[in-house]
Write a structure and sequence with these properties.
The structure is a homodimer of 452-residue chains. With 452 residues, chain A is of the alpha/beta class. Helix content of chain A is 42%, strand content 16%. Chain A has two domains: 247 residues, Rossmann fold (3-Layer(aba) Sandwich), CATH 3.40.50; 164 residues, Rossmann fold (3-Layer(aba) Sandwich). In chain A, the strands form four sheets. In chain A, strands 1-4-5-15-10-11-14 form a seven-stranded mixed beta sheet, with helices on both faces. The first copy, chain A, has a four-stranded parallel beta sheet with strand order 8-7-6-9, sandwiched between helices. In chain A, helix 13 links the parallel strand 10 and strand 11. The termini of chain A are far apart. Chains A, B: Keywords: Amino-acid biosynthesis, Aromatic amino acid biosynthesis, Lyase, Pyridoxal phosphate, Tryptophan biosynthesis.
């Protein structure tokens, strides 16, 4: 087994532009609407929450956006990230498939999230903002923003979903080590949090609730802005450094993916890897099948409605046209906390509607089985989120074994599980269950979708 | 800040030989002795514990040992590791010093330990061993051996120091994810463990005790062998891939270290980085000052005696000539669990006696202060062990600031702290204390040193 295990790029080969897929789509995604007027929101509506530079990126129709030098300097702490050929997993599966994984766990916080946290913190600092607020589910995003805020000297306040705050004390400690302040959500600090607690004193929270709290706090402080770790266009655009690097690494490998598989929660990791490949596909330079995998307990693409909905539970955000389970839907507290969001990125939802990608939902025990197999062959213990993609990836490789096809499969390994090991403990002990989708709750929450 | 942040090597530039510094020392280190006869131990004495290949490496006088291809194949999962220039830390310190760190946290378990765990598992598997036993303190070593054992299909049983077993549940979960079995030590499974528990039912354990247990279990099973994560010659030799890579990376940087600083527990991380540079120094090609930093609560080099002593608490191992606090000395349960061992590698102790390296002891609060400063500038949260080296490194950089000297400082960042975050929590909350060295216990344990 002397053939190459990983494909590295030099710092000097790091992408210097983000790719904005909106410029290449056959039709533009529907705009966000103001919930009061039903009209498309303008920059002024968003100014209390985001710096001007990010608002401009959010609505940009430019194909490429320059990455500022000060952002590249921080990216260099871990980028370019490696592309691995999973030779040991291939051997364990006895498959003729060639399995590749693009690994983002090399970042300081162990996930892909700093790819957007760093530019978000940078643009805020550049416009004189001194305080960032955000929410976090699994804790990956909060950790990333805490790191990025420390890098540019901003203060950072994180509302962490209560279930995660209680179950993942290490995440809170990581954010605090970077200097951030962490609150469990729902909290008594905001009107949105107090309203939830009044009805549900024992609420374990949700991303939607935590977003409401962080948005409310940012809107109330002129020195503060809000930062979101997924869902929005600019976030997905920042993540395209992943896919741009992977394209160059496939050139080094003298190969190209037949199938690309990523996990989807809000869509940022998936979009980050997939969009540059989708550009190649739209231009006729690739025929890769591109597939999103989501948790069976929170299946926004496969079971959600494509409709205008709020991004948060309290209804403080603009209305976004997206695949949604309804903004009041609270998914079961599955271990892949990063995939536990009621909506899906509008850009990705639109692309799914255009028929450019496929989607699949998988239960969490199958995902963890894939995670354990991967760990024991490739060494890296995958975060619970990307085990969804790995499960589909292993299925595909086993189909290749049956058919004899030697497909090249690319998957997004967006992080490691060092801070998620209790989830593996639950799986190994046999106590993990496959949460059923709460059908009753889904019907109710879909019936409560807002009408723009 | 457009200058280079990290120096990467291609897989094809990975070292293919380990460096055995014993071949280059002006006099050989004193041999291990049989505790019964007082005679040097021979291969037959060690055969119940180690495979022949490792015994041969332990006593080898060859300068270079070939790394087997099957080991290189696994090394490729994370090696070569990056050498970073800490430009953001330099800026934060406003120092003219050039600070470099060789980062081993990119391995699947987040530390340098797999560099020796992998070859140890490989040689055992090659000789038909089916079961490995070992001990672990902080959990880094146990995790590494669990990963390596999974790689070669061996079963793996780990005795984890009770204090760590209780405080670091994530470590246990990581080992179990790789398929290992973990016991708290002292345990009722061994005579050594039962003897300790009879006298001290609430014993929080020590590395010395856990070694006794793992050695006892291996010796009793012809299919089993024992694996040690530090201290022994072959372990330090395996780790020299770190320093060999760093030498090549300094060539890329067109620089060379004036000062090299590493932390020392058993000595494997330090030796791994330092020995190749020491070779250059002995050959007159380098003038680098080489410094070992140890915890003030467990100061084997600076306060221990250079004498023959047992490697374990129960006295089951051969006698090793080393810097020791006495094999019955039980250090305070400091957060840098990997540095909490009563002895120091005989090879490193010998090198220290030859005056080839310096040593310094630092209290844990100063170390964590350095760790937090590093995290907030460089992003990576350092494991508690290498914060000792970072504290000395920052001191050196600040001296450069005063003197105006622009020294190149190289430090060994042997792992990240993702599984050690409660230690940072203790530091940030102000509850961390600087454990005093237990002087009374030290006097007693030194008085009990065996006489060969």
């Amino acid at each position: 087994m002397s053939a190459r295990t990983k494909y590295l790029l030099d710092e000097s080969d790091m992408p210097t532009r983000w790719y904005n897929i909106a410029a290449d789509l056959p039709e533009p995604p529907p705009p966000p609407l103001h919930p009061g007027t039903g009209e498309p929101v303008g920059p002024d509506d968003l100014a209390p929450l985001f710096p001007q530079a990010l608002i401009a990126q959010e609505v940009s129709s430019e194909r490429y956006l320059e990455i500022p030098g000060a952002v590249l300097d921080v990216y260099r702490l871990w980028r370019p990230s490696p592309l691995f050929r999973a030779r040991r997993l291939e051997k364990a599966l006895d498959t003729p498939a060639r399995i590749y994984y693009k690994y983002e766990g090399v970042s300081p916080v162990g996930s892909h999230k700093p790819n957007t946290a760093v530019p978000q913190a940078y643009y805020n600092a550049a416009e004189g903002v001194t305080r960032l607020t955000t929410e976090t589910g699994a804790g990956q995003w909060g950790s990333a923003l805490a790191f990025a805020a420390a890098t540019y000297g901003l203060s950072c306040e994180v509302w962490q979903v209560r279930a995660s705050y209680d179950q993942k004390p290490y995440r809170k400690l990581m954010m605090e080590t970077y200097g951030a302040t962490v609150h469990p959500s729902p909290s008594e600090l905001t009107a949105a949090g107090r309203a939830i607690l009044a009805d549900h004193p024992d609420s374990t929270g949700s991303l939607g609730i935590a977003i409401s709290e962080a948005v409310e706090m940012a809107a109330a402080d002129p020195q503060a802005r809000y930062a979101l770790g997924s869902v929005l266009n600019h976030v997905l655009t920042h993540q395209t450094v992943i896919g741009e690097e992977a394209l160059r690494q496939f050139e080094l490998a003298e190969d190209s993916p037949d199938v690309l598989i990523g996990c989807t929660g809000g869509g940022s990791n998936f979009g980050g890897l997939a969009f540059p490949f989708l550009r190649e596909k739209l231009a006729g330079r690739s025929t890769a099948v591109i597939k999103a995998v989501e948790p069976a307990a929170c299946p926004t693409l496969t079971r959600g409605r494509y409709a205008y909905d709020f991004g948060d539970t309290a209804g403080l955000t603009p209305l976004l046209k997206m695949h949604t389970l309804g903004h009041r839907f609270i998914p079961d507290p599955i271990h892949a906390g990063g995939l536990r969001y009621h909506g899906m990125a509008p850009l990705l939802s639109h692309i799914y509607e255009l028929g450019l990608i496929e989607a699949q939902a998988i239960g969490q025990r199958d995902c963890f089985a894939a995670g354990v197999q991967f760990a024991r062959s490739e060494g890296i213990i995958p975060a619970p989120e990307p085990t969804h993609a790995l499960a589909a990836c292993i299925d595909e490789a086993l189909r290749c074994k049956e058919s004899g096809e030697s497909k090249a499969i690319l998957t997004a390994l967006c992080g490691h599980a060092h801070l998620d090991l209790p989830a593996y403990g639950a799986y190994l002990s046999g106590s993990m269950v496959d949460n059923e989708l709460a059908e009753d709750q889904l019907s109710r929450s879909l019936a409560e979708l807002p009408t723009p």
